[in-house]
Design goal:
The protein is of the alpha/beta class. The chain has two domains: about 210 residues, NAD(P)-binding Rossmann-like Domain (Rossmann fold), CATH 3.40.50.720; about 80 residues, UDP-galactose 4-epimerase, domain 1. The protein is built from eleven helices and 13 strands. The mean pLDDT is about 95.
Length: about 300
């Protein structure tokens, strides 16, 4: 039976992933410091089916224990808030870069065969109105968070290449789905919260900024495919479709059957204008296809 450790396994992606791995008869462990997650939620998992290590990726002893006898590590633990990274870049780099370096060193020590890593669209920074972002697009982050993810990727590629560890880096775009905490939520979750409270939807800027939204179920499928993938690689994981934030707000109001309006606020620092993704590489190599259309995904959430 395959042994898999999920760092950050109690977080938003982690919870969905762990459930899915267990369904697929994998032997799953979690390493989490519960800074972005609630310990109570872990009680959803049966203790006899899952091993929980409470610990931090910045602590070598914590990682040493958790990575013993693991075949694959799926590395989701990270500081993920762009706004927080602007306020406190040092902490973001400590966790996302130094924490990953620790993890790599100890994966080598414990003979982990493969590491699958959550990276982010933030590595690209500002997209283009005319062109889709591919894996070859120049990396030009506009936040310390994006910079930390680039550094993290570099560390992984170099270390894994030097030490014969397989790696797959998945650059996730705008994820939405059930169980996303408001603190770390994307715009869909924030709009849902407003709809639930019968409040007007708030948009920062003119609403013409574009995004590529991807359902959590598609994210989980991409990770399963990365487990099966036998080579190394970096892949954009998204839907391959763009929508403006204004159109998204209008769609969500329509699907909610409520009479709500849109309010426009001042643009946020560090917000990108255009983001549209090419997912052909993931289709051709990982056999990844986005199965959930945005309208259906939102309907389900509403």
């Amino acid at each position: 039976m395959m042994n898999i450790l999920v760092t950050g396994g109690a977080g938003f992606i982690g919870k969905h992933l762990v459930k899915s791995l267990m369904k697929n008869k994998k032997n799953v462990s979690i390493l989490d410091n519960f800074s972005n997650s609630d310990k109570k939620l872990i009680s959803l998992f049966k203790k006899d089916q899952i091993k929980i290590f409470e610990g931090d990726i910045r602590d070598n002893d914590d990682i040493l224990e958790a990575t013993k006898n693991q075949n694959i590590v799926i590395h989701l633990a990270a500081k993920i808030s762009v706004e927080e990274s602007i306020k406190n870049p040092t902490e973001t780099f400590q966790i996302n870069v130094e924490g990953t370096k620790n993890l790599l060193e100890i994966c080598k020590k414990n003979n982990v065969e493969k590491i699958i890593v959550a990276s982010s669209a933030a590595v690209y920074g500002e997209g283009s109105e005319k062109y889709k972002i591919t894996e070859q697009t120049k990396l030009n982050p506009i936040s310390p968070y994006g910079e930390s993810k680039i550094e993290m990727e570099k560390e992984i590629i170099k270390f894994c290449s030097d030490n014969q560890i397989n790696y797959v880096i998945l650059r996730f775009f705008n994820i939405y789905g059930l169980g996303q905490s408001i603190e770390y939520a994307g715009v869909i979750t924030k709009f849902l919260e407003k709809i639930r409270k019968n409040e007007n939807l708030e948009i920062f800027g003119d609403g013409m900024q574009t995004r590529d939204f991807v359902a959590i179920e598609d994210i989980i499928n991409s990770i399963h495919n990365a487990i099966e993938y036998t080579e190394n690689g970096i892949f954009n994981i998204a839907s391959g479709e763009k929508i403006t934030i204004k159109s998204l707000a209008q769609l969500m109001i329509l699907l909610s059957n409520k009479k709500l309006n849109i309010e426009y606020l001042k643009s946020k620092k560090g917000d990108i204008k255009y983001s549209e993704t090419d997912i052909r590489l993931a289709k051709n190599h990982l056999n990844y296809f986005s199965k959930i259309e945005l309208k259906d995904g939102i309907k389900k959430l509403i």
